Amino acid sequence: MTTTHTPARRSTGLRVRLATASVLGAALALTGAGQAMAQPAPTAPQATAAATCQSYWPTPYPVCGAILDLYKSLGGPSSTLSYPKSSEAPAGDGIGTRQAFLGGTVYYSPTTGAYIE
To answer: Both 71 and 97 in a single domain?
Structure first.
């Protein structure tokens, strides 16, 4: 017995493939994955700043510069500071910056360097 494919069966398969492609395209648009691929290459200052930062999964907050140096020297996430719970932000004194971790806060200024508060 031979099976023949009718045009209706082929068109149904095509509709399923097109619907799947549409769903995948919508998912990429929602997650921003398609947009991320279309972004221009970073300029040199952004690349340099990114090189001095490190992220520690599962937290989304990067640790950068002198705070990163102190954090690494203490043992990173396995230290008493644990994982970052915020990004580095101005300290409010107009001079330094602070970054909060689950186990404490690190302050940095050019005159004092980085230290745990």
So the answer is: yes
The pTM assigned to this predicted structure is 0.57
Average pLDDT over residues 34-41: 44
Shared domain for 53 and 108, answered yes or no, is yes
Give the 3-state secondary structure of residue 60.
coil
Residue 69 burial (CB count, 10 A) = 15
Average pLDDT taken over every residue of the chain: 75
Residue 1 lies in a domain: no
Tell me the C-alpha distance between 92 and 76, whole Å: 25
Residues 91 and 67 in one domain: yes
CA neighbor of 78 nearest in space, from 53, 108, 101 = 101
